[in-house]
Structure to design on (129 residues):
């Protein structure tokens, strides 16, 4: 005895077969749509990550430039305050007179100037001997 399954060809089986084909087709279309939109989403995510990475590098470079510029600005501000102090001193007659007397050995009338060696110079001469 041979156990063979014979397929019935009636309206119910035809309807069931067509329904299976339709569901398989819908499933295939659904998978394709999911893959298509998923790949678009993945592409957008990759582009956004690249943009974020490049922006981060640009921000780090700008931050280092800002730090360097800030250091230069602080140096220039210190130099500016030193120059302002020097201008105030040069406008003071007593300071100019003191500089002229010490640097250029200018004297008032009847005043004698003696040039004495510095203590540091004496210490260096003794150390050399």
């Amino acid at each position: 005895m041979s156990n063979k399954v014979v397929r019935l060809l009636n309206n119910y089986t035809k309807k069931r077969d067509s329904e299976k084909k339709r569901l398989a087709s819908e499933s295939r279309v659904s998978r394709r749509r999911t893959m298509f939109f998923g790949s678009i989403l993945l592409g957008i995510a990759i582009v956004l990550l690249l943009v974020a990475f490049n922006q981060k590098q640009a921000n780090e470079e700008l931050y280092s430039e800002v730090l360097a510029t800030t250091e230069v600005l602080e140096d220039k501000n210190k130099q500016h305050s030193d120059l302002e102090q020097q201008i105030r001193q040069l406008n003071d007659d007593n300071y100019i007179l003191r500089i002229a007397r010490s640097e250029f050995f200018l004297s008032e009338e009847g005043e004698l100037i003696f040039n004495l060696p510095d203590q540091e110079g004496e210490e260096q001469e003794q150390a050399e001997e």
